[in-house]
Amino acid sequence: MALLEVSHLDVRFALRQGEVRALRDVSFTLDRGERLGIVGESGAGKSVAAFTILNLIAKPGYIAGGSILFEGRDLTRLKPRALQNIRGNQISMIFQDPMMTLNPVLTVGEQMIECLKAHRRIRSREAREIALNKLRQVYIPSPEKRLDQYPHELSGGMRQRIIIAIALLLDPDIIVADEPTTALDVTIQAEIMSLLLELCEKHNVALILITHDLGVVSQVTQRTLVMYAGRVIEQGPTREIINDAQHPYTQGLINALPQMASPGSRLNQIPGAMPPLAKTPPGCAFHPRCGFSTDAAGQRRRDCREDVPAFVTSGNCHVACHMVRELVERDPVEPGEAS
Amino acid sequence: MSNATTTTPPTHWARFRDSYLFYSFKHDWIAQVCFVIFVIMVSAALLAPWLASINPYDLSQVFILDSELPPFWIDGSDAKYPLGTDALGRDMLSTILYGARVSLIIGFGAVILQALIGVTFGLLAGYLGGRVDAFLMRLADIQLSFSTLMVAIIVGAVFKATFGGATYSEHAVLLLVLIIGLAEWPQYARTVRASVLAERSKEYVDAARVMGFRAKRIMFRHILPNTLSPIFVISTVQIANAIISEAALSFLGLGMPETQPSLGSLIKSGFDYLQSGSWWITLLPGAVLVVLVLVINLLGDWLRDVMNPRLYKG
Fold first, then answer.
1. Domain spans of chain B?
2. Residue B211's closest chain A neighbor by CA?
3. Given this model, what pLDDT does residue B138 score?
4. What is the DSSP letter of A258?
5. Does B213 lie at the interface with A, CB-CB under 8 angstroms?
6. Which residues of A touch B207 (CB under 8 A)?
7. Domain ranges (residues) in chain A
8. Which fold has domain B41-307?
9. Model ipTM?
């Protein structure tokens, strides 16, 4: 059994203008120690997915359907008390902006010790020892001193290290990292990512890495999930998705990487922008921007316009695209062949 | 927090000495003067039983023949009474010391009560939102639509009618703390609620929820410390206001009885003699009241400047 099994997750926001569907039929699994990347544009529902895994969607959002099985227990049905025991303890989260995630009026040590004490019966002295240990694991210089410092006395990279230390504090099974390096400058980004990778491997922690950086995904994760307008459109082994993307959207994303354009020329881009969630087009949400949804006569294909594509298996990947389905039906790709 | 064996964290005093608060205090002579006056007044008031030459509550120490003696700089004064005496022959200095004590106790007591109710309600309203917020804030609106004076008149009248004047005198301090405390809590609730709304959307609150902390812990341990600056600032204003409210109530005869005078009841007791030339009975406690409130307000002003992050970037 997988450690985390998300199936048919449906998240909606009840706004005054009407209901907005932020996640539609999202399913994926995560094994112990596995690293999964979730990629997509801003607004594709990546962060909502992250919060939903912890059942922390705030009003007006709510989980309208589906289940999140963690070690066989459905997080959507657990009582608040039981959820609090899982949060931080078994599933922890790393946020985007290290400047904002630490409480400005508590010292680093106070925050770490408090976190330990909230989940374990432990004396302050022991808690401080554990906190110190974790700070050493994230290679923070002079950790004893850091414990008594306030967040504003530390640099961004240092703070993100502390946040990673806090995420690891209770030896969780899963860490959900929501764009953990976006707010940092490039040199530190690489350091933080390799640190996160190292720690996850060492402690056999499963990682859900949410990002829009395909480069990071390809270096860190084993499997990737591509999201568009609240839906998963492609998932499979990271290497196959990077090397041989099937979905036109994923292909577009990979083509848009700076290294894919010849030097001096303009970068490749996907025409248009992702529609706001309230105005998601019927059929395949990507069809208005898709180069393959027009037929020979220049008309939009009827199935792309009207039918939500079902997943087809192509190699080891699952792809939700009518065009890919046709190709696969005509010329089946056996699993393993693509890589 | 426990000290580790390996390190000695900077002491609280060292932190305070290096803080912007202390730096700004050192460079603001108005704040220093106000602080000194405030400390002198508060300690003199608290030490009244030892500083005062007589106990004005004890009628056996009062000589009616010494009534209406002027303060020392006017002819006809008595060296025993440096600030003169009132119509009953009580030493003005002693009554002012005792009166300031009563005023300060009521002022601080009422503000503590306001803060307890207001901060709790403000946190609940801001953090929980929805119906709790709507209910508590309408309650605050209703409370604010009653003036303090009206509440005091009603409560005081009911209390006097039910328990009699003697019991009223005994519990007058407590009653005034309750009345002024209950009348003004919405000030705190509104300020705290506004700051909580701003803090709630910050990521550290999300992070705390992700850590699995309970709502109570997030509210009091994580959000409350981040809203302390506005709380401090309105506290100074509220203390000054509470002292004035108490003085106004006592002046109208709804507050402290004359046997246990506060500054307000002292002003009132001398009011009848103003035209007969004994102006000091009213004016001296009045001046003390003005200085006390002014000093507190100036300190509050300074504190607001220091704690407003828009005015400095630290």
1. 41-307
2. A88
3. 94
4. G
5. yes
6. 93, 95, 101-102, 163
7. 248-330
8. MetI-like fold (1.10.3720)
9. 0.78
